[in-house]
């Protein structure tokens, strides 16, 4: 089967090449970019539909870990995860979001959950029957995660949660949330624990829905006397920060992969436009200025692709990849933003017309430079890591 040239790079084996071919064929058959209704209700319904579709296609099995719990393997194959996100983002941005949240929302359970927790949540997520969410950020604690205020006070055989979480993807449509709260074993990052909170738990309410440039389900959650059983705590008490960071180490690389998908689609559209658009008696692509732009776009994309799959490959070799994942996330999201901007420019007025693919890519990419650690946070991670070595 044919596959893109970058699949011949040494990061991949035949199983990855075969996986990518099957995935592309499935995406072509099931997903297409169309101008969809961006009302909140329509986006919510579309996300639920996409999760069920991805589940029935078998793709969500790659977002979780544990063969005994419906996963494709016992350990998430980071290269497959990245190929999935890149390919979904290339074909259809919202389907990448729907896929990504199933993984991010259960990453803590896959990595640190008890067998009971895994049995209760992972099979339903892998089949698309349940939607997951990851609730870390707060109004006063975004980049500075350790400043979180949401509290988890020990009470009887469990904890009682108080506080707010904001910018929570899938907020309002998730079946459960993995929530990080201050349990007080120690000050700062060492006094945080992680809990699974079912959406119908008394005391948990959706305070506000949030609208953003590229519509996704997003909400602020309120916890008031919200009681969670001890069986719902993930990992040791006070280890929640470690749980969150280990989850982000896996999924940060996949944010880079999503950016590759958006950037690759922009380059694909720009090439088609350069070949077909007639002006001044020749095509847009006949101008050297256009060729220069295309060269820049392709080089930015290849550089980002190399860093992304290096990080994914290293993790699959069992190595710690905090620095490499940060380099990949920073470079891929920043480069994709530039590539997409150049593609918009090459499309002229069509580039900013609502519903055109490059217009939606332009909106989709922006948040990736902010969430799961803004570019400046990635710079700090890389710089500190190098200085301590
Ligand atoms: C679309 C979207 C989806 C999201 N989904 C989720 C989710 O599912 N779960 C969740 O928990 N959170 C989610 N978030 C929240 C996201 O992780 C935060 O927005 C992010 O961590 C930044 O936090 P903040 O918005 O509070 O910005 P701030 O922390 O106020 O940072 C603002 C800016 O300051 C700059 N900055 C940060 N640190 C430094 C520094 N050390 N030095 C210099 N400059 C710096 C960066 O440019 C940053 O963008 C989402 C956000 C968005 C936009």
Folded structure, characterized:
The chain has eleven helices and ten strands. The protein has helices spanning 14-30, 40-56, 78-91, 93-104, 107-112, 115-126, 240-276, 288-316, 322-346, 357-366, 375-388; strands at 132-135, 151-154, 158-169, 176-182, 192-198, 204-209, 218-229, 233-234, 278-279, 282-283. The longest helix is centred in the middle third of the chain and has 37 residues, at 240-276. The chain is globular and about 80 Å long. It starts with 13 loop residues before the first helix and ends with a helix. Flavin-adenine dinucleotide is lined by residues 134-137, 142-143, 167-169, 212, 218, 367, 370-372, 374, 376-377, 380. The site of flavin-adenine dinucleotide has 19 residues, from strand 1, strand 3 and helix 11.
Compact description:
It is built from eleven helices and ten strands. With 389 residues, the protein is α+β, with helices and mostly antiparallel strands. The strands form three sheets. Strands 1-4-5-8 form a four-stranded mixed beta sheet. Strands 2-3-7-6 form a four-stranded antiparallel beta sheet, with no helix packed on it. Strands 9-10 form a two-stranded antiparallel sheet.
């Amino acid at each position: 089967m044919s596959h893109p040239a970058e699949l011949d790079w040494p990061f991949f084996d035949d199983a990855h090449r075969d996986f990518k071919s099957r995935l592309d064929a499935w995406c072509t058959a099931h997903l297409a970019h169309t101008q969809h209704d961006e009302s909140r209700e329509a986006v919510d319904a579309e996300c639920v539909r996409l999760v069920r579709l991805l589940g029935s296609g078998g793709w969500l099995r790659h977002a979780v870990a544990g063969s005994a719990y419906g996963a494709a393997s016992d350990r998430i194959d980071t290269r497959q995860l990245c190929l999935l996100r890149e390919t979904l983002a290339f074909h259809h941005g919202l389907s990448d979001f729907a896929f990504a949240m199933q993984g991010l929302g259960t990453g803590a359970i896959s990595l640190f959950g008890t067998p009971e927790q895994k049995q209760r949540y992972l099979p339903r997520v892998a089949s698309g029957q349940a939607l997951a969410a990851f609730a870390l950020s707060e109004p006063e604690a975004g980049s500075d995660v350790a400043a979180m205020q949401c509290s988890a006070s020990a009470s009887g055989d469990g904890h009682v949660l108080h506080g707010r979480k904001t910018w929570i993807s899938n907020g309002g449509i998730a079946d459960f949330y993995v929530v990080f709260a201050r349990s007080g074993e120690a000050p700062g990052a060492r006094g945080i624990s992680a809990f699974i909170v079912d959406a119908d738990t008394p005391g948990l309410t959706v305070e506000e829905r949030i609208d953003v440039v590229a519509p996704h389900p997003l909400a602020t959650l309120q916890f008031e006397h919200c009681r969670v059983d001890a069986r719902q705590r993930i990992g040791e008490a006070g280890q929640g920060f470690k749980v969150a960071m280990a989850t982000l180490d896996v999924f940060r690389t996949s944010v880079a992969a999503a950016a590759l998908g958006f950037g690759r689609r922009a380059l694909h559209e720009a090439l088609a436009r350069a070949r077909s658009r007639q002006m001044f008696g020749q095509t847009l692509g006949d101008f050297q200025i256009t060729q220069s732009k295309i060269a820049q776009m392709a080089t930015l994309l290849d550089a980002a692709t190399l860093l992304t799959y290096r990080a994914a490959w290293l993790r699959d070799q069992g190595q710690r990849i905090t620095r490499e994942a940060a380099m990949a996330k920073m470079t891929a999201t920043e480069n994709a933003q530039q590539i997409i901007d150049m593609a918009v420019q090459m499309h002229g007025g069509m580039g900013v017309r609502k519903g055109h693919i490059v217009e939606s890519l332009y909106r989709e990419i922006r948040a990736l430079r902010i969430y799961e650690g803004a570019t400046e946070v990635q710079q700090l991670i890389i710089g500190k890591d190098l200085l301590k070595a």
